[in-house]
Each structure stands twice: as structure tokens, then as C-alpha cells.
Amino acid sequence: LAAAAADTWATEIGTGSRTPPRLVTTGRRLPPGTSGGVSARAAAAAALGAAVIAGTAAVGALTGWAPASLGAATFPVVAAAGLGGSLVDSLFGATLQATYRCPVCGRATERRSHCGAATERVGGVSWVDNDLVNVAGTLAGAGAALLVGLALR
Fold first, then answer.
1. Are 109 and 100 in contact (CB under 8 A)?
2. CA 153 to CA 13: how far, in whole Å?
3. Which residue of 33, 67, 94, 115 could cross-link 104, Cys pair, CB 3.0 to 4.6 Å?
4. How far apart are CA 63 and CA 76, in angstroms?
5. Tens-place pLDDT, residues 24-80
């Protein structure tokens, strides 16, 4: 959940940044909202989103309404796993997610159609869409938290 929150907050808040995002793999400037783009504002939003979920998990662990398996390490483990999952999402969005170009307006898009016309794939893997990238990032965050939790037992 922390990874999903981090990614969502980064996307929603980061798109309002006055500074153009940069591609996570090369640092090249990108239009706001482009998959794989990162900015300071988006990173801060991701950290805040992960922290909200981590804080909720920590309070739950301390009050007994959630498993206390990580004890005092709940907050940092969940927050770090959330940020890590969000980073995986950005990396996969930049490298694997299918990208298309609209033949009508020439804009890059994640959609198979734009301006009422079929788009042309210009990058990524054809069957890797934003939903799959989101699942991969969320699973990466959950997997990281699980591994750390098992290591701390």
C-alpha cells in the first residue's frame, strides 16, 4: 500500500511541478505526466504518501489493531519499501511500458488511440501498460517489506 500511495501521490502532486521532470534513467527533461519522469516535487510527494501509510501501519502495530511483527521498525521499513516500490514503478515506466505516438497531433501517449486515431508504438513492450507497471511497483514494495520483515525476525 505504501508503494501504491507513493506512486499515486508522486504522479498527482508531481504533475503540478513548475520544473519539468527528468527521465529516471537518463536525466533527460520530459513533459509533465510522462511515465518514468521524476522531479523533486514528485519525490517529496512520494515520500509523504509512503510516510502516511507507514505511519498508519506503525500506529496500528503500537495500538494492537494491526500485527506488530516489525515492532519499532514498522515505520522505516514500510516507508522505505513504499519509496522503493515507487522507484521500481518509475524505472519500469521508463524502460518497459509501451509508449505510442499519435499520428494526428504527434504527441507521445500511453494510449493505443489518441485524437480518434490508432497510435503507433514507439517504445517499450507492447503488452506492458501502466496498470502492469503499477502492479510491479506495488509488488516490489511489498516484497521488499516482506524480506526485511523476515530478516528482522
1. yes
2. 36
3. 115
4. 17
5. 999 999 988 889 999 999 999 999 999 999 999 888 888 877 766 667 788 899 999
